[in-house]
Write a structure and sequence with these properties.
Chain A is an all-alpha fold and 289 residues long. Chain A has a single domain (50-288), classed as MetI-like (MetI-like fold, Orthogonal Bundle). Chain A has helices at residues 3-32, 49-56, 58-88, 96-108, 111-121, 128-135, 150-160, 163-174, 178-186, 191-229, 241-251, 255-288. Chain B has 427 residues and is of the alpha+beta class. Chain B contains 19 helices and 15 strands. Chain B has helices at residues 45-61, 75-87, 103-107, 115-120, 131-134, 159-164, 176-186, 205-214, 234-248, 256-261, 264-269, 283-290, 325-335, 338-346, 355-358, 361-364, 375-378, 390-405, 411-426; strands at 35-41, 65-71, 95-98, 138-139, 142-143, 145-147, 151-152, 154-158, 188-190, 194-200, 273-278, 296-299, 309-312, 314-317, 381-382. In chain B, strands 9-10-11-8-12 form a five-stranded mixed β-sheet. Chain B has a three-stranded antiparallel β-sheet with strand order 3-14-6, with no helix packed on it. Chain B has a three-stranded mixed β-sheet with strand order 7-13-15, covered by helices on one side. In chain B, helix 8 packs across helix 9 and helix 18 packs antiparallel against helix 19 (411-426). Chain B starts with 34 loop residues before the first strand and ends with a helix. By secondary structure, chain C is mostly helical. In chain C, helix 3 packs across helix 10 (180-196). Mean pLDDT of chain C is 85; it is low at 256-263. The chains are: A mainly alpha (289), B alpha+beta (427), C mainly alpha (263). At the A-C interface, helix 1, helix 4, helix 5, helix 6 and helix 8 of A face helix 1, helix 3, helix 4, helix 5 and helix 8 of C.
C-alpha cells in the first residue's frame, strides 16, 4: 500500500513554500545578526559584536523592559479574560451566541483600524474615555501622553482582542465530561472546590495552549499598532522590540543590529514559553497525585 | 579606494563656490539623454500637483525623456521606502533627501556625486545657489545633492491673538524676553475655545538648536569632525532651560497632555495658539485651512544673544544605482532650476535656494500671506553638522529634550544621558 | 447584568468610533461626554470615500483576497489531508514543522523576504502581497485542516484508495466536502489576514494606484489627522467587511458543539 506516498505530493506545495517564505528568510536573518550588514555594502562577519552592542545600548534596554512588561501583563490578563469569559458565557442560555460574537468582534477588526480608533478613544482631552471619566467626576489619565499609562494602553487593547483564546477556552471547557462534575458534587464539593479540582486541572492543557499562542504573537502584534499610534513615544515608553528592530534596520540601516534584536526577541519568547511549560507541568503533577 | 572611505577629516566646511561657468561648452560632446526617468516625491496633494506640472513641463522641453512620478505622501514612509529601495538596488532615479539624512548613504557610496554634472551644466551654476543652501550638500570633497530649497525655522504668529492681548506685533531683532512676555500675555482660558497658549511647537533638536546658537553655545565640538556633544556647556544648558521654562515654569506652551490631545500645528490653524515655530513648509497648509479666519505673519526667531536660525533643506539626489543618470541630471537641472523652483514657490512651499527666484516677487510677494517672507532671506542660518550617524544622533537628543520640556527630567540629566549615547554614535 | 457590562466593554470602542464618524467636521471636538453627535451627519463617509480614494484601495485589497483565498484553501487543505493520511512519525514531524514555522515572527523575516521578492521581480505587484497564500497563509491553517481530516473515519479513504482514485480526486470529491465548517473558518481567517495586512503593502507596493486599504487609511490619517470624524469614518468603512465576514462565518467559530480547532 502506498496510499500515504500518494498523498505526500499534496504536502509539497505547503512544505516548499513554507521553507522558502519562512525558513530561508529566518535563517538569513539569524545569519545577518552576526554581520554588520547595512543593505548597502557587502556584509562583514562580526561575530557577536551586534549582541554586545545591544547590551550596551540604553534604548535597547528600555525596549526590552517594555517588552517584558507587555508580555508579563498581557499574557496572563488575556488568559484570565479568555477563560473567565468562556466560563461565564459557556452555557447554552439564550442569547449567549450574540454575546460570544460581541466578545470576538474586536479581534476581527484590522490592526490599522483598531489603532486609529484607539488613538481617538484615548485622546486625553476630547476622547470618549476621559470625557466619560470626567462626567463621572473621576480622575482622567493622560494615556498616550504619559509615560506611565502609555504602555498600559497597549495592554488594554490587547486584552480586548482575545477572540481566538476565547474560542479555544470555550471548546476546552466544553470537553470536560459532565460526569466528573456529578461525581465531585456527589462527594460534596462546593463551587470553588469544583473549579479547583475539576475545571482547572482538566482545562490546563487548553490554558497552556492559549498561553503559548499569546506569548508567541504578543510582541509581533505590537508592531503595527505602536508604529501607527505612538512610534515608541513618549520617551521610548511604548517602544517594543519589533519597532526597535525596524528603526535600527530601516532608519539607521543597521540591519545586522536589527536582526540581532529580533533574534533576542525570539529568545525572550522562548524563555517565556519555558516558564509556561514549567508552570503547566507542575500543575499537572500536583493535581494528578 | 575613494577618498570617501578614509577616516581622515573631510575637507567639507569651506563653502567657497568655485567658478563653474568656464566649462559651459564641455557638455556638448555627450548625447542628449533619453528614456524613462523615475522621480520619487512626497507631500500633500497640492505639492504632488505641482510636481506633476513640473514633470509635464520637463517632458515638453525634453521630448525624448518620460518622467515616471512615484508618489509617497508621508515623509516617514518616504524615508522607509527610499532606504528599502536603495537596499534592494532599485531606487528611483531622482530622490529627495534632506541634508541631515544623505551622509549615511554617501558614506556607503550609494549616491552619485553631482559635482561634475554641475560644473558641466549649461543651465545651472553653483553660484546661482545661496552658499548657505549649497554647502551642507558638500561633504568629503564631493557635492552629493542639489538644494531644492533653503528654508529655516521662523515664528508664525496669529495677529488676532496679539491684538486681543493688546500686544505689538513682534519685530525682527526681538529679544527672548519680549518673546516670553508675549507668550505669557496671550496664554489664557477662553470660554469658547478652551485654553489658548502663547507658544507651541513639536519638541525636537531642530527647535532648540537655534537658541543654543543664539546664546553662544554649540551642539558639537567641531562641525567638520565632531567627537562629542557640547550641549552640556553652561551656556547651552541655560539656553535650553530658558526654552523649557516656557512650558514648565510659565505654562505658556501646551503640556504633554495638551499637545497629545491636539498638536500645536492644529492649534495654530484653529486660532488657539499665539505663536508657532516651523519652517516654510506649513505655508500652503496655512493658506488653505486658515483662509481669512485670522491674519497671520512670520517673524525671525527671538534672540538670546544674536539672531540666528537653523537650515531646513531638501536636496535632489541621484542614487548610485539609478539606471538613467543622465536623464536624472537633466530632470534635476530643470526641477531644482528656475522653472521647478518657481512652480514650487508659487504654491508657497519653498524658500528658493536659487538667489534669483528668492529675490523675485514670486517669493517676496507681500500681498499673499505671509507678508514678511523676506525674513527667510535676512536671517543668518546655520546647518547641523554632516555626520553619517546624524539621524540617529538627532533622534536621541530629541527624545531626551522632550523629557525635559515636559518637566520629567532636569536639563542637566538630559544632556548627560544623551551625551553618553551620542559619544558612541560619533565614534 | 454582568454579561451586559462585558458586552459593552467589548463593543464600546467600535461604537465610539462609529459615533464620532457621524459628527460634523468643524473646528471643535467634543468637550463633554457625547454618546451621539448632534446633528448626525453621514457626509464624512462620502468624503472619506472621495478624499481618501478608498474605493480604489478597496478594490486593490479585494483583488489580493480574491486570489489569496482559494490558493490558501487548496494549499492548506492539501497539506492537512496529506498529514492526516501519513504515518504517525510523519504526522509528528509535520506538526512540529508547523509549530516551528508559527514561532517565527513576521518582523524577523520581512527584510530577507523583501529581498527575495525583489529578486523575483514582484515588487510593486499584487503578487508580492499574495505570496503567503502559497504556504497556506499560516501553518495554523494547515494544522486546522489536519485536525479536521484526522477526525474523519480512515476506512472512507482506504476504500477510495482501493478504487484507485487519485489523491487530488479524493481530496476534491471526498475529503473536502467532509470538512466544510473548517474550510469556512479557514476562509474567513484568511480573509481577515489579507484584508488586515498592513506591513507587506507598506513595504512592497510603490505605486499609489496599487495601494491597499490599510496603507490608504494611514495616508488619510496623516493628512487629515485633525479631522477626526473623517478618519473614524474611513476606519469604520475599512473594518466593515471584516465584521461582515466574521458575522457570516461566526457559527463556524463560536457555535457548534465541537469547536473547530480542537475537539
Amino acid at each position: 500500500m502506498d496510499t500515504s506516498r500518494r498523498y505526500r505530493l499534496l504536502l509539497l506545495p505547503f512544505v516548499i513554500a513554507t521553507v522558502v517564505l519562512v525558513g530561508v528568510p529566518a535563517a538569513l536573518a539569524i545569519g545577518l545578526s552576526l554581520t554588520d550588514y547595512d543593505a548597502l555594502s557587502t556584509p562583514n562577519w562580526v561575530g557577536f559584536a551586534n549582541y554586545i552592542q545591544l547590551l550596551d545600548d540604553r534604548v535597547f534596554g528600555i525596549a526590552l523592559g517594555n517588552s517584558i512588561y507587555f508580555l508579563a501583563l498581557s499574557v496572563p490578563l488575556r488568559l484570565l479574560g479568555a477563560f473567565g469569559l468562556a466560563l461565564w458565557l459557556g452555557g447554552e442560555r439564550r442569547g449567549t451566541g450574540a454575546y460570544r460574537a460581541i466578545v470576538y468582534l474586536p479581534t476581527v477588526i484590522p490592526d490599522a483600524a483598531t489603532a486609529l480608533m484607539w488613538l481617538w478613544i484615548v485622546n486625553p482631552l476630547y476622547g470618549p474615555i476621559n470625557l466619560l471619566l470626567k462626567s463621572l467626576g473621576l480622575a482622567q489619565p493622560a494615556w498616550l501622553a504619559d509615560q506611565d499609562s502609555a504602555r498600559f494602553v497597549f495592554v488594554m487593547m490587547a486584552c480586548l482582542q482575545i477572540g481566538e483564546g476565547f474560542v479555544v477556552a470555550l471548546s476546552g471547557l466544553k470537553g470536560i465530561p459532565r460526569s466528573y462534575y456529578q461525581a465531585a458534587q456527589a462527594d460534596g464539593a462546593g463551587a470553588l472546590s469544583l473549579f479547583r479540582h475539576v475545571t482547572l486541572p482538566l482545562a490546563l492543557p487548553w490554558i497552556a495552549l492559549v498561553a503559548v499562542r499569546d506569548t508567541i504573537f504578543a510582541l509581533p502584534w505590537t508592531f503595527a499598532v505602536s508604529s501607527i499610534m505612538t512610534g515608541g513615544d513618549p520617551f521610548y515608553t511604548t517602544l517594543f522590540l519589533p519597532l526597535y528592530a525596524r528603526i535600527q534596520s530601516v532608519d539607521y540601516l543597521k540591519f545586522g543590529l536589527g536582526a540581532a534584536a529580533t533574534t533576542l526577541m525570539i529568545v525572550l519568547a522562548a524563555l517565556a514559553l519555558g516558564l509556561i511549560g514549567l508552570a503547566a507541568r507542575r500543575g499537572w503533577y500536583a493535581d494528578e497525585i | 579606494m575613494l577618498a570617501a572611505c578614509g577616516a581622515a577629516p573631510p575637507p567639507t566646511a569651506a563653502p567657497a563656490p568655485k567658478p563653474a561657468a568656464t566649462s559651459v561648452l564641455a557638455a556638448t560632446s555627450a548625447p542628449a539623454p533619453s528614456g524613462i526617468v523615475s522621480w520619487m516625491v512626497a507631500g500633500d496633494s497640492v505639492e504632488f500637483d505641482a510636481y506633476k506640472r513640473i514633470a509635464a513641463a520637463f517632458e515638453r522641453a525634453n521630448p525624448a525623456i518620460k518622467v515616471d512620478l512615484v508618489y509617497i505622501p508621508a515623509s516617514a514612509d518616504y524615508r522607509n521606502r527610499l532606504a528599502a529601495d536603495i537596499a534592494s538596488g532599485a531606487p528611483s532615479d531622482v530622490v529627495f533627501m534632506n541634508y541631515q539624512r544623505y551622509p549615511p548613504f554617501a558614506d556607503k557610496n550609494q549616491l552619485a556625486p553631482l559635482g561634475d554634472y554641475l560644473s558641466r551644466s549649461t543651465m545651472l551654476r553653483e553660484s546661482d545657489f545661496f552658499p548657505a543652501a549649497m554647502s551642507p550638500y558638500k561633504w568629503r570633497g564631493s557635492t552629493w545633492c542639489l538644494p531644492g530649497n533653503m528654508s529655516s525655522a521662523v515664528i508664525y504668529y496669529n495677529k488676532k491673538l496679539f491684538d486681543g492681548a493688546k500686544l505689538d506685533y513682534p519685530r525682527a531683532n526681538w529679544s527672548w524676553d519680549d518673546f516670553v512676555a508675549s507668550a505669557r500675555a496671550i496664554s489664557r482660558d477662553d470660554p469658547a475655545l478652551g485654553r489658548i497658549y502663547g507658544y507651541g511647537t513639536e519638541i525636537s533638536l531642530f527647535r532648540v538648536a537655534p537658541y543654543v546658537w543664539s546664546a553662544g553655545g554649540d551642539l558639537v565640538d567641531s562641525a567638520d569632525a565632531p567627537t562629542k556633544l557640547t550641549l552640556d556647556s553652561e551656556v547651552a544648558m541655560a539656553a535650553i532651560q530658558r526654552y523649557i521654562d516656557l512650558q514648565v515654569k510659565f505654562q505658556a506652551a501646551p503640556s504633554a497632555l495638551a499637545e497629545k490631545a491636539e498638536d500645536s500645528l492644529t492649534r495654530f490653524m484653529n486660532g488657539k495658539l499665539g505663536m508657532y515655530m516651523d519652517s516654510r513648509r506649513v505655508v500652503p497648509l496655512f493658506r488653505d485651512t486658515i483662509k481669512d479666519s485670522f491674519d497671520w505673519d512670520v517673524v525671525a526667531l527671538p534672540s538670546q544673544g544674536q539672531t540666528v536660525s537653523i537650515l531646513h533643506s531638501d536636496g535632489y539626489c541621484i542614487p548610485a544605482a539609478a539606471k538613467n543618470k543622465d536623464a536624472a541630471w537633466a530632470l534635476i537641472e530643470f526641477a531644482a532650476g528656475p522653472r521647478g523652483q518657481t512652480t514650487m514657490t508659487e504654491i508657497g512651499r519653498l524658500v528658493p535656494s536659487l538667489r534669483a527666484i528668492a529675490e523675485s516677487p514670486v517669493f517676496l510677494n507681500p500681498t499673499v500671506r505671509p507678508a514678511n517672507s523676506k525674513v527667510w532671506l535676512e536671517t543668518p542660518i546655520r546647518p547641523v553638522p554632516n555626520h553619517k550617524n546624524w539621524p540617529a544622533i538627532e533622534t536621541a537628543i530629541t527624545k531626551e529634550l522632550e523629557k525635559s520640556y515636559y518637566g520629567v527630567q532636569p536639563v542637566r540629566d538630559a544632556v548627560q544621558i544623551v551625551g553618553k549615547q551620542v559619544a558612541t554614535l560619533l565614534k | 447584568m454582568v454579561t451586559v457590562v462585558i458586552a459593552a466593554v467589548f463593543a464600546v470602542p467600535l461604537l465610539f468610533a462609529l459615533s464620532l464618524s457621524l459628527r460634523q467636521i468643524d473646528r471643535t471636538l467634543p468637550t463633554t461626554m457625547e454618546w451621539l453627535p448632534n446633528p448626525i451627519v453621514l457626509g464624512n463617509y462620502g468624503q472619506a470615500l472621495a478624499d481618501g480614494n478608498l474605493i480604489r484601495y478597496g478594490l486593490n485589497s479585494l483583488l489580493v483576497v480574491a486570489v489569496a483565498l482559494p490558493v490558501t484553501l487548496v494549499v492548506a487543505s492539501w497539506a492537512g489531508l496529506a498529514m492526516a493520511r501519513s504515518g504517525p512519525a510523519v504526522q509528528r514531524r509535520m506538526v512540529a514543522f508547523c509549530v516551528v514555522a508559527l514561532l517565527v515572527p513576521h518582523s524577523m523575516i520581512w527584510l530577507p523576504r523583501f529581498l527575495m521578492v525583489k529578486w523575483a521581480g514582484l515588487i510593486d505587484t499584487p503578487f508580492a502581497l499574495m505570496l503567503p497564500a502559497l504556504m497556506g497563509t499560516s501553518p495554523l491553517f494547515a494544522l486546522l485542516f489536519y485536525w479536521a481530516f484526522r477526525r474523519q473515519p480512515a476506512d472512507l479513504f482506504d476504500a477510495a484508495a482501493m478504487d484507485g482514485a487519485s489523491a487530488v480526486r479524493v481530496w476534491w470529491s471526498l475529503a473536502l466536502p467532509l470538512v466544510g465548517p473548517t474550510a469556512m473558518a479557514v476562509g474567513a481567517l484568511t480573509f481577515l489576514y489579507f484584508w488586515g495586512d498592513y506591513i507587506d503593502p507598506l513595504l512592497m507596493i510603490k505605486s499609489p494606484a496599487r495601494y491597499t486599504l490599510p496603507v490608504g487609511l494611514s495616508i488619510l490619517q496623516q493628512f487629515d489627522k485633525t479631522r477626526w470624524p473623517l478618519v473614524m469614518a474611513a476606519a469604520v468603512l475599512y473594518a466593515l467587511p471584516s465584521i461582515g465576514v466574521f458575522l457570516a462565518a461566526q457559527r463556524y467559530f463560536l457555535a457548534g458543539r465541537r469547536m473547530l480547532w480542537l475537539s
